[in-house]
Amino acid sequence: MLLLLITKPIHHISTFWYALESHQYINFLDLFFLLPEVYLVILISLGIIIISMSNFKPLVFFEKKIITIFVTNLIILSLFIVSCMYGLLIILNLKFLKIAQTYILFNGYAINDFYTLFWKFIVIFTAMIILKASKLYISNHSRHLMEYPIFISLTTFFLLILIMSYNFITIFVAIVGFSLNIYVLLLYDSINQSSREAGIKYYFLSSFSTGLLIGGILIIFFFFQSTNFLYITWKLNYLQHFNLLKNYENILTIALYFLILGFLFKLAAFPCHLWAADTYEGSPHPITVFFVLPIKIAVLTIFLRILMYVFIDLYFIWNYIIWLSSFYSMLWGGVAALTEKKIKRFMAYSSINQMGFLLIGLACGTFEGIRATLIFLMIYTIMNLGFFIFFLLTRDNKNNKSMIYITDFNYAAQHNWTYTIILVIILFSMAGIPPLGGFFGKYFLFFHAFSRGYYSLVIMGIITSLISTFYYLRIVKIMWFEVQPKSNLLIFKTEFDDIKSIYIFTGLLLIFFLLINTQFFNICDVMTKNCLYPLT
Amino acid sequence: MNSFFLYQINQISLFFTYIHNFFANLLKHFVTQIFGSRFHESKMVYEWKNRISSPSPTDNFYHEYDKIWVLLIIALVICFLLFLIAYFFSFSTIKDSEKLSEYECGFEPFDNATRHPFDVHFYIVGILFLIFDVEIALLFPWVLSLYNVNWFSFYVMIIFLGVLTIGFLYEWHRGALVWPHQQYSTIFTDYKETSN
């Protein structure tokens, strides 16, 4: 079994010293790679100054709502500019230049390559769309938290740092940073009891999970005397080369299990998934999208890099827990969503199910498996983005309230049939119906799991995707065929034209996935190379 | 006992001899001011004591501490004066049981600790001032190494201080530093009941 593992070349000691010693003194040029983040931070501080000045007597005549919307516009603009910068860099890298060579920054604390560049772009883009869509939530809500856009942009900042981290210290700082902001954002709607419950539940469980994470990092530090990725890989290579790994198996299993449990909590995968449904239900709608999309993307990317680059020599230790997590999260997410009546709880369980699919490729522990997970992660972002844009921008005609129950979808088709067709496409691709994008993501995952010998995962994946087709199709049925004459009519708000175009674009991407999948493959090849072998 | 520890003990003993010498010299200075330079010793002894000798390396090192003792004396004098002024010029003597009682950050020190309402604002103020402690802990090594670092390392700390000032502005103008007006004050009503 171990022969099938990726054979990684042993890093010669000279490469190690080069990577550390060449950046021994922090260079000003390292900040060049952080220019978008620096721009973001400057805009955030400007927003904070504006908010703090709002209590001054000459500025009191501005309402709080006006100030919040002004600051959100400011930060949306900054996020747009930053995402444009990243998009330009990615296009240039693909077409003309190889800008995104690997650079180790800040004395071995961060790394910059195409993998980080791409996922940073995705995280910023999703955060921008969430902010744009949440303007409706702010304007309809009676309570106004003026710091809302600032907390959102600070979480995105910390997620960017999490993606580009190359050291366990950076990872811990970034995770604590973004979760601190999320604790506050969960209590935006603190008049509701469910919201308070969600906030307190997430706060306690998340602090416990970060405790597990720092415990794992501490044991790793005691063992290796360093937290740098490169040093740990080099040391592990050395130990494996001389067959010394089995002497230290026990301590390394404890460290890895602590670390993996800390990460699985943030991903809402099987052993640590029980917070997900309650927090998703209680949190304000834009924050649920934040849980589903940018946080999961950032944490999963760094999780892949840790397990597949740093601890690949310990595959025989961590493969079991990842297998278990993916198997049971598929099962739990598939079965528990059947009985749910609220949309956000339903989406929480469906996202747990999809997280199980994403972890199949990691359990394989091969190049192809990681490529399949990355492809499925892209499709996952597209599908969930489309679904949640629809969810955020639909309102009741009478109450002007967003929908809560699945039965609120009824009669949507008659009034906005163009948008509901795209929602149907998204739901079909979530279920995995062949010509759409979701099918291909699952297909590649199952194919590589089968070739690797994980028959149990393949069988469980097929069974749960069969179950999940039932509850995805139920929504479609409610939308098109269950006409209740007394129900309030749903309205897809049409003020935000750019978001509408993005919503349509997600549906088109899922339909025409077959035509563009070669481009997807090329990008994912480069990214898996960067993920598994960053310095070669 | 290693050599480093012995060296440390030697240094400490040298420091105490230095303090002794300082005060002895100070006393001698006042004596000579009043009674003349050669009041208590003969000319030969005076010349022997004030002979030109090679200075020890520790003398120069500790000589820079001279200013501190002068400042200490001035500070003691000022403290004493202020205390006296307050004693003489205060309008009334305070006889308040509340002010004489024990105080421990808003808690009642000697009571059943469970099931008492407590103002959260104490914690908030504590957290807000914790940040400045961290700032000082970062500033000390920066100050000590400032002579050796380049301009980038200088401006990094300036940026950090700027971010802190923005945060301070925010908490100031949002009214986090103002003690909230409570309609039912939890701490003080309870305290009066127990004290009576």
Architecture overview:
The complex is a heterodimer of chains A (536) and B (196). Chain A has 536 residues and is mainly alpha-helical. Chain A is built from 20 helices and four strands. In chain A, 72% of the residues lie in helices and 2% in strands. Chain A has a two-stranded antiparallel sheet. A two-stranded antiparallel sheet of chain A has the order 3-4. The N terminus of chain A is likely disordered. Chain B is extended, with a radius of gyration of 28 Å. The interface between A and B is small, with 12 and 11 residues.
Question: How many β-strand runs of chain B?
Answer: 0
Distance between the termini of chain A: 25 Å
Helix count of chain A equals 20
Assembly status: heterodimer
Q: How many β-strands of chain A, per DSSP? A: 4
Largest interface: A-B, 12 and 11 residues
Please tell me what the overall shape of chain B is: extended
Main structural class of chain A: mainly alpha
Structural class of chain B: mainly alpha
What is the mean predicted local confidence, pLDDT of chain B?
73
What's the number of helices of chain B?
8
Percent range for β-strand residues of chain A: under 5%
Largest sheet of chain B: none
- Average pLDDT for all residues of chain A: 85
Helix content of chain B: 55-70%
Helix content range of chain A: over 70%
* Biggest sheet: strand arrangement of chain A: 1-2
Task: Characterize the largest beta sheet of chain A: strand count, sense, and whether it forms a barrel.
Answer: 2 strands, antiparallel
- The helix/strand series of chain A, from N terminus to C terminus, equals HHHEEHHHHHHHHHHHEHHHHEHH
Rg of Cα set of chain A: 23 Å
The succession of helices and strands of chain B, N to C, reads HHHHHHHH
